[in-house]
Amino acid sequence: MLSMISHFSNFNHPLPHHDLNRNSKHINLLTMESTLLNSLILITVMIWSTSCQIPTTLDGPFNPVTRKFDPSLRRGSDDLPMNHPRLKKNVTSNFPEQIALAISSPNSMWVSWITGDAQIGKNVKPLDPSSVGSEVWYGVKSGEYLKKRNGVSMIYNQFYPFEGLLNYTSGIIHHVKIDGLEPGLTYYYKCGDSSIPAMSNEHVFEMLPLPGPNSYPHRIGVVGDLGLTANTTTTIDHLIENKPSMVLMVGDLSYANQYLTTGGKGAPCFSCAFPDAPIRETYQPRWDGWGRFMEPLISRVPMMVIEGNHEIEPQATGVTFESYLKRFAVPSNESGSNTNFYYSFDAGGVHFIMLGAYVDYNRTGAQYSWLQNDLSQLNRTVTPWLVAAWHSPWYNSYSSHYQEFECMRLEMEQLLYQYRVDIVFSGHVHAYERMNRVYNYSLDPCGPVYITIGDGGNIEKIDVDHADEPGNCPSPGDNVPEFGGVCHTNFTSGPAKGKFCWDKQPEWSAYRESSFGHGILEVVNSTYALWTWHRNQDMYKENSTGDQIYIVRQPELCLVPPQQLSHTTATGFGVPESHSSSSCFLIIVIAFTWLHIL
User: In this structure, what are the phi and psi dihedrals at residue 305, rounded to the nearest 5 degrees?
Assistant: First the structure.
């Protein structure tokens, strides 16, 4: 490659004899042309040398790689105390706190916050939600708020009618949808109740681009299983440093259920530390601390959440998920699901599907029916990328949660494959793992790229054991899900045929590592997206990443259902597997295109 570029860069354009006496102006033009050519080729070489370090999925499937846990690092850390500066309340009673954004539609945004004081004790008196107004004032100029919208307010209770346990009632939770927003514009806003008056300080956010094949969020942050530890602090600080346009939170947020209702110190294993607890208790003020901790980030970029098992939080009456359902606004009505347990939304040319692993996912259920309808209405020429997220991974080679949600995979995988989902994000396992493209445990160039990113930093610590290592294969009776059935099965084909676990890293597992961190997805065009996993320990290192790859869609090879296509085809590069290539090849093409033009 370099020799070819050198050959072309040294090429001299001979002039016919009768043109030798042309004026100096022509010679200067030739000199400029030569200089431009050499400059472009130099740029090409620089880009080529850099880009070739980043593989693409077209180079796969990759041989499995495991990076062992670094023994110089701690496997985890304790939770931050409630009096920590990032967790304690810093406003007076009716002023807004825990301010958060969430996408409603390409032209609207949810703004949420909490006012008033939560109460915890044996006898608590719920606040009156109507006692404080829900207003958002907003505009495109700082200090000039030309629009105002009102919303809804509510509270929730977490009651434990057991001897020695305390009850909780929340502050007033406000949700306001602000609309009429222009994609790409920056908006300034305040929230609160102007009649008291008790309005927040000014906050700012930038709207995401409209759906379309050539417009995408700048950076999509992805994180899961976060908690509130010192490791969590590093994860979020690192994420903020990477300047995301939005955040995808794949479940297990505050870990309030690692505590007794009386507070005290949280435990990495609740049942181990509190074997006599009459119910899985929670210390709900941890949710308030989590909202304050996250506010500096999610008051200026939208965070899209989906529930995990730590959000179940059962009460004696059978009520579950109260904190999750009340604290977070999601586009449930906008997407036709009418529930916070599963929904969808667009962010530029990406359609996101957020699925619930802890509600009915059977083919006869409401979620599956909604999913079918949502997928059938997609137009991949408008939103070429299809990304799904749910909490519990289907593909996982760690001992923890191994084959735990096999029932969900058996019910839903075929439908997602049929509609050519490009990427799937999950958490639950407290480590990082990226799969080769896979479908039904077989390598498949049209299968999604599954990524487990449950390494946000929570109190339960990092997972380090792999199911394929001697002595680490779980028994079929282990890893029983907190919702749904058990469908553990032995493999029926491939190198692990007849076995419950592989005896080496599975071929569908491309890369795995036990470290805390977060991910950034940067969609380049309708077929190329750069995925980067950032490890916490690399925060202060220049240009250091844990895992990085270009994920490449292949619409020519992997045809989607006809109803997702209109009269045009998706833009961008799509190279069939039979002509597999890489970003290096694309740079070569660009170089020779320049040479041809010049």
Answer: -110, 155
Q: Which of 174, 310, 401, 430 is catalytic?
A: 401
Q: What is the pTM of this model?
A: 0.87
3-state DSSP assignment of residue 547: strand
Calculate the alpha carbon distances from 181 to 102, 106, 175, 184 in Å: 14, 8, 17, 9
- Coil, strand or helix at 378: coil
Residues β-bridged to residue 534: 518
Residue 178's closest CA among 209, 198, 219, 207?
A: 207
pLDDT 10s per residue in the chain (598 long)? 333 333 333 333 333 333 434 444 443 443 444 445 445 444 443 454 344 589 999 999 999 999 999 888 889 999 999 999 999 999 998 999 999 999 999 999 999 999 999 999 999 999 999 999 999 999 999 999 999 999 999 999 999 999 999 999 999 999 999 999 999 999 999 999 999 999 999 999 999 999 999 999 999 999 999 999 999 999 999 999 999 999 999 999 999 999 999 999 999 999 999 999 999 999 999 999 999 999 999 999 999 999 999 999 999 999 999 999 999 999 999 999 999 999 999 999 999 999 999 999 999 999 999 999 999 999 999 999 999 999 999 999 999 999 999 999 999 999 999 999 999 999 999 999 999 999 999 999 999 999 999 999 999 999 999 999 999 999 988 999 999 999 999 999 889 999 999 999 999 999 999 999 999 999 999 999 999 999 999 876 766 689 999 999 999 999 876 655 543 333 332 333 333 344 454 544 344 334 333 4
C-alpha–C-alpha distance, residues 132 and 92, integer Å: 13
Measured between alpha carbons, how far is residue 184 from residues 48, 309, 381 in Å? 32, 35, 20
* Active-site residue, 488 included: no
Judge whether 204 and 297 are in contact, CB under 8 Å.
Answer: no
- C-alpha to C-alpha distance for 385 and 368, rounded to whole angstroms: 21
Gap between the Cα atoms of 223 and 357, Å rounded: 17
CA distances from 212 to 181, 373, 513, 565 (A): 17, 21, 35, 14
